[in-house]
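Can't attach files on this board, so I'm pasting raw text. These are the components:
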Amino acid sequence: MSNDPAPLLVVRDLKTYFFLDEGTVRAVDGVDFAVHPGQVVGIVGESGCGKSVTVKSVMRLVQRPGRLVAGTIRFRPSSQSAQRWPLAPDGTLDLAALDPQGPIMRAIRGGEIALIPQEPMAAFSPVHTIGNQIVEAIRLHQDVDRQTAWEWGVERLAEVGIPSPAQRMRAYSWELSGGLRQRAMIAMALACGPRLLIADEPTTAIDVTTQAQILTLLRALQEQHNMAIIFITHDLGVIAQIADHVVVMYLGRVMEAGPVEEIFLRPQHPYTRALLRSIPSIHTPSRTLLPTIQGSIPHPFNRPAGCPFHPRCGDFVPGLCDRNTPEPVPVSPTQTVSCHLYTGELHGEPIPDRSSPA
Amino acid sequence: MDPGVFMARYIAQRLLLLPLLLFIFSIFAFVIIQAPPGDFLTAYIAELSASGSSMDQAQIEALRRLYGLDQPLHIQYLRWVGRILRGDLGFSLDWQRPNAELISERLLLTVLLGLFTFTFTWALAIPIGILSATRQYSFLDYFFTVFNYIGVATPTFMTALVLMWLAFKYLGISVTGLFSAEYVDAPWSWGRVVDLLKHIWLPAVILGMDGTARLARVMRANLLDELHKPYVEMARAKGLSEWRLVLKYPVRLALNPLVSTIGWYLPLLFSGSVIVATVLNLPTIGPMLLRALTNQDMFLAGAIVLIYCALAILGTLISDILLAWLDPRIRMEGS
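---
Top answer:
Structure tokens for the assembled complex are below.
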């Protein structure tokens, strides 16, 4: 699936900066990744690493003082109306070059790329019914009357497993439980049959039992509709459950990317290894101190020069890591790492064998 | 609960409270009006002696008895309330005419001016608030901010005086009153209506300036709070255009708290602004209340204050109903 020759979305050298009075925050600073049709890509990283800003940039939802300053976001639209859009010869469209408020971008948002937000409570308007908001989403992208849109809405609510969907359409979001609210959100996101679903930490605000149900539901819907998902989370356990492909981010850059098995079994980047070590394992003897990553995330205004991870890295090479920013290099046909241990810049030495971590 | 049933019950509950509140307010109105030393006759006698004439003691006592001013306060109160319950607002000692007649004479123009001011205020303040918030820190926002500070900081009577002076000096016209000289005492006619419309906008603008500035500030602040809520981003992610989503979601939520202030306008519609109306010589109820208070014409003042209170209660009721109708969360709390 991931070897599909025609990717749905290819993001190259994406840079989104926030221009504040105090200085510029380089929230996303040169991110590359691709999403293939029907693939679940997990973006993982600590808070503030730029996961959300990356996907908001893809949807062109970044608001002032944030701005997309560089990069391309090539998306392959599928809808009928795409015939009239200025597509490149390969059938893709650079979303980064579009007017974020323009008609094409608005047709893509919700129609081709849909969002499931982090807080289902706050993402529904409290003074409009669920039905009102779902019907609105449908009628923005489909030429149907209110009655038909309402019936579709009821079907969608039933599809995501909401009991008595017809009544729920008339309910307000605060009348539903957290789990049901997130299901309703998913129903609204799926309303127009998007090809790409962006789930921005959709289970963070939900308790663990419900979280598992939502993940199962998303996986089932993904297979049913053959849609691709970008799944953002800081929870590696969730990534292991749902993702096909993993993108590890740190301070606005991709540290490592690859298929989920490779990332979990053969992590190459010191940051990915440190992250994986900090997960409690059932095999660790009790009362053992859980390893943590030394230091803390630098303040956004004081980004380290060179590799952003070097001040916390156990393999830090003075004079190299704090000067040059490592570019992504392939370490296998499917896996890339951005680290000087692999770039060959390390005094021209051969790349050290890191395939079996200690 | 069905929203209709809930609303009916909600309104009924509020209505049941109405008589109790009115009773409490009537006591307050009476006590406040009686608070200054002396009564209408003391003021009247002082005025007479100032102009050189005088009254003998027997005459004064006769008048006191006639108006019931010799009775203890609670008896005076009960008589007053008793008359009001029978629909009699009492008699103005100062004007020597029934209060009901005096008030109703000025009521139409007062309410008309109030409605003009209200419409002007909302029609201007809400769009200004929306523009300022959606274009925060833009030139437009700063412009309106300065305009609003001036509006809030300048006393309205001052604005009135300055405009009067400017109009008189440069345009040679007098902008006081609501009618031209030939229509002041004329019966209602088409010409009088047109003349009223020619005059009413200026007092409406002057009276509304302060309110517009305040309302625009509040609208801007409320909307800024709402604009960055997740439901706004969600609406954007659905593909809604910026204006449609701003008007449908955050503006709607930012307006809700303002709706609760609509009720306060009701008593203001009735009284008009006392000082501005006096400066501009408007034939509204405000200046009449001021005169009644200075002359201790207590039954007229009492009647006006009581109507004022009743309208305040009614206004709050209307606000509550509007809010419950607009905001489903309030209906939820109530049921």
